[in-house]
Structures are given as structure tokens and as C-alpha cells.
Amino acid sequence: MKNPRERKGMSAAMHMADLLDADYALFGVFGRMGLHLGFGEKTVAEVCEEAGVDPGTFLMLCRMYVTEGYRPTREELQNADLTGILDYLRNSHSYYTGSVIPSLEEALCKMVRDCDEKQKNVLWRFFNEYKEELMAHFRYEEETVFPYVEKMLNSEDGNPFTIGEYEENHSNVEEKLADLKNLIMMYFPPRGDRQEAYSVLFYLYSLEVDLRKHTHIEDDILVPMVMRMEEVVAAARPEGEELSAREKEILVSVAKGMLNKEIADQYNISIYTVITHRKNITRKTGIKTVAGLTVYALLNNLIDMNSVE
């Protein structure tokens, strides 16, 4: 006999209980979207509507969590609620800083309490370096990226920052976390509390998985949505604007005959970002061909004749 709550597909018409029962990881999305337990037999759409949450955006985030390699379609991104995405990311920061990190610190403290001072100091210094790197990443988003997006949503222009700069400076906070896991698993201090070590590893692995999803949401949802908004705003501006420092660098690379992939590798950015910069260069200069852009670069003393192939 089939379970009446058997999952039939992820949609706004399914019962919320069916959705959450399919994968417990979705409780994280549920809570960070401001949804609450006690929903009874209500559907995803009904629960979201009561909380003022866009069901399509909620389901898109759910798919990011449970479907490996999932990337939203253009239609999903066009219909998504960017304010809801920002709320989700901010709530994720609060979860990491207010729950996961303190729990991890407590378990780590218990794990090393019987270790010698040298071992304690080394492990704590390494952990604190990782923690500060993670906090700096969050502060950059909270103080620079998210306010910029909100100003765009409110039709406020004039900020020299672009979401491409965020993608270029999107720090990788995973390497130190992976090293900390390996240090504990492979080089565990003999006098450390082994039971607490398992707690530390549990928190580290959980944090690693969640941060990876967090990064995917930023890279595959936030960045393309904001880039699209920037393109719309840019298209409405008059031509003749001055090129930014990054756009001048891209222009010089184009004039030297470099391909988009080569430019992306040189500046450690995505091809998508290179293409966006090139669109902005064309819009601002009114010049579409590589040959024309090369002449523009020469006339504006961005390159000399010896640099041109």
C-alpha cells in the first residue's frame, strides 16, 4: 500500500509535509525563508502565501539543495523574488554565526581541554583564522553587496560597484575548513577528547555542505539576477560613459587578441563576467568590432603599437 504522503514531484501544489519529508536538508531552507511549522495539510503555495513568500523562489532554493548540479532556468530567474533571495542569504549568515560557529567552538574547546598548550594554541589559531576569513566574507556581503542590490531594486543608481566585482572577489572559504577536518581526522592530538572530536567533525562537515549550497545560490541565482538588472539599467543610460578600470583591462586584453577564455583565466573571473564587461565596453564606446576597439585603445593610449598582434 502506498504512503498517502508519497512524493509526486516538487511543486507548489504538493503538501508542504510531503516536500519536507523528502529531504531533511530542506528544513534549513524552510526556516531561513521565514516559514513556520504547524502547517497541517496545507500545500507549499498556501504556506508560502501566508508567510508572504514567493513559492517559486522557495522551490528554486529547495531544488538547489536536493538536486546535484541543478542550475535555475532563465525563466525561473526572471520570475524569482530577489528580495526573498537576499532575506534567505542574510538568514543563512545569522544561522552560521549564531548557531553553527558557537556550537563548533564549544565542541572544539572540549576536544582540546586536556591537550598541551602548544597543541591548543596551534589548533585555536588555525580555527580563528578560518573564522575571521568567514566573517570577513559575510561582512563584505552584508555591507557592500546586499545594500548595492537593494539600491538597484529601489531604482537608486550611481554606485560604482558592480556585481561582477563581487564575483571576481568572491573569496573561497572552503580550503581552510577542509584542512581543519583533515587535521582532526588524520593528526588528532593523543590527549584530545575523542568523543568531542566526532562532534567537531559533525559540525565541520555540516557547515561545509551548507556553505557549498550557499555559494551555489550566490553564484547561480544572485549574480545572474543582478547582472540582468545591471544590463537593463545600463541599456537605459546614454552612451559615452567613461570605462571603468576593469573594463579598460578587458579592452586591452581584447585589443591584444586574447580570447574570452584566456581573459577569464588571466583575471580569475568567469567567461560570463568577461562577456558582460565586453557588452558594457561596446555600449559605452559605441564600437562593436575587435579592430575598432583596438584603434580606440591606441587612440586613448591604453596600448601601444608593439602590443598589437
Could you say which overall geometry the principal axes of the C-alpha atoms support?
flat
**Helical stretch count?**
14
Rg over CA atoms: 24 Å
Q: Helical content, roughly? A: 55-70%
Number of domains: 3
Euclidean distance between termini CA atoms: 72 Å
Given the helix and strand composition, which structural class is it?
mainly alpha
Number of strands: 0
* Poorly predicted sequence stretches spanning 5 or more consecutive residues: 1-8
Strand content: under 5%
Biggest β-sheet strands, sense, barrel: none
The ordered string of helix (H) and strand (E) elements is: HHHHHHHHHHHHHH
Mean pLDDT over the full residue set: 87
List keywords for this structure.
309 residues, mainly alpha, Arc Repressor Mutant, subunit A, 3 domains, 14 helices, 68% helix, flat, disordered N terminus
Short description:
The chain has 309 residues and is mainly α. Helix content is 68%, strand content 0%.
Please, could you describe this protein's structure?
The protein is mostly helical and 309 residues long. It has 3 domains: 55 residues, no CATH class; 159 residues; 63 residues, Winged helix-like DNA-binding domain superfamily/Winged helix DNA-binding domain (Arc Repressor Mutant, subunit A). The chain is built from 14 helices and no strands. The longest helix has 42 residues. The radius of gyration is 24 Å and the shape is flat. The termini are far apart.
